[in-house]
Amino acid sequence: MRVSTQLEFLPVTSDLAPVVHNLYLSCPTYIALIGGETPSLNDIQRELETLRHDTRRQAVLLRQGERVVGFLDYKVAHPDRHSATISLLLIEESLQGRGLGKAAVEQLEALLKNRMERLYAVVYGQNEQAKRFWERMGFTHLRDSGPTLCWYLKHLR
Ligand code: ACO
């Protein structure tokens, strides 16, 4: 069932590492696609700690009401000061295909559009579903950086 929804962007702090970890555990298809290694809770904690030192990096949990439905990791002023780059949008597997990913991207675009001119999405691995999703969201394929890294771009204004 498709939902029309407003998502809350909840900044991720280290104490929320178990929530992010659970989200990864709930996405086995994606984990298999990127090589099958589920990050450990420790990996997530370390990553969130790194992130704390990079003020341009924004990691948010996507919350619908009381339920965490996804995770979004992006960086502002990257790769240049007029652009932002999404490195991961992850929607809980059982909730995919209901419009939540689209809602997250639309909300992010609205948030950034007065500050940034361009939004990039970097797709890792042989992730054809993700490529189709970004194209559906109005992004165009920009370039491949090696066999497993694809850059997509959308102009925000
Ligand atoms: N093939 C074709 N179209 C698709 C696909 C697909 N596999 N997935 C979504 N779409 C289309 C939908 O049909 C919909 O189009 P519509 O508005 O015309 O109906 C539109 O994209 C939005 O679909 P949503 O339901 O919002 O997509 P969803 O909530 O499933 O989010 C996402 C998409 C983020 C790819 C999700 O499926 C997911 O988390 N997948 C696993 C993790 C992943 O691969 N994330 C992307 C990595 S790349 C990166 O983040 C930069």
Notable traits:
157 residues, alpha+beta, Aminopeptidase, 7-stranded mixed beta sheet, 5 helices, binds acetyl coenzyme *A
Summarize the structure in words:
- This protein has a single domain (about 10-155), classed as Gcn5-related N-acetyltransferase (GNAT) (Aminopeptidase, 3-Layer(aba) Sandwich).
- The relative contact order is 0.16.
- By secondary structure, the chain is α+β, with helices and mostly antiparallel strands.
- It is about 30% helix and about 30% strand.
- The model has no long low-confidence stretch (mean pLDDT about 95).
- The radius of gyration is 15 Å and the shape is globular.
- Strands 1-2-3-4-5-7-6 form a 7-stranded mixed beta sheet, with helices on both faces.
- The protein is built from 5 helices and 7 strands; from the N terminus they run E-H-H-H-E-E-E-H-E-H-E-E.
- The protein has helices spanning about 15-25, 30-35, 40-50, 100-110, 130-135; strands at about 10, 55-65, 65-75, 85-90, 120-125, 140-145, 150-155.
- A hairpin with a 6-residue loop joins strand 3 (about 65-75) and strand 4.
- Helix 1 packs across helix 3.
- The structure holds acetyl coenzyme *A.
- Acetyl coenzyme *A binds near residues 27, 86, 122 and 133.
- The site of acetyl coenzyme *A has 23 residues, from strand 4, helix 4, strand 5 and helix 5.
